[in-house]
Amino acid sequence: ALTIDETDDDVMVTINYLINQGLLEVVTENDEYYLTEIPNLIGSETE
Predict the structure, then answer these.
(1) CB atoms within 10 A of CB 23
(2) Rounded Cα gap, residues 27 and 6, in angstroms
(3) How far apart are CA 19 and CA 43, in angstroms?
(4) pLDDT at 47
(5) What are the φ and ψ backbone dihedral angles of 11, each rounded to 5 degrees?
(6) DSSP class of residue 1?
(7) What pLDDT sits at residue 1?
(8) Which parts of the chain have pLDDT scores under 50?
């Protein structure tokens, strides 16, 4: 939160929203996260 100049609460709300929507998964207990849609976006082009 400090790195991106946001409050801890704002960051946690965003993380919890992304997890609840299935867009973010907790990978390890050390706060590592995985954005689930990234593999679908790699190698694609916009129209």
Answers:
(1) 13
(2) 23
(3) 24
(4) 65
(5) -65, -45
(6) -
(7) 58
(8) none
- pLDDT value of position 2: 62
| Gap between the Cα atoms of 38 and 36, Å rounded | 6
**What tokens does 34 get?**
């995985």
CA dist list (Å): 5 to 1, 2, 17: 6, 5, 19
Q: Which domain holds residue 32?
A: 8-41
User: Does 12 map to a domain?
Assistant: yes
- The number of folded domains in the chain is 1
| DSSP string for residues in 3-44 | TTT--HHHHHHHHHHHHHTTSEEEEETTTEEEETTHHHHTT-
Residue type at 27 in one-letter notation: V
pLDDT at 20: 96
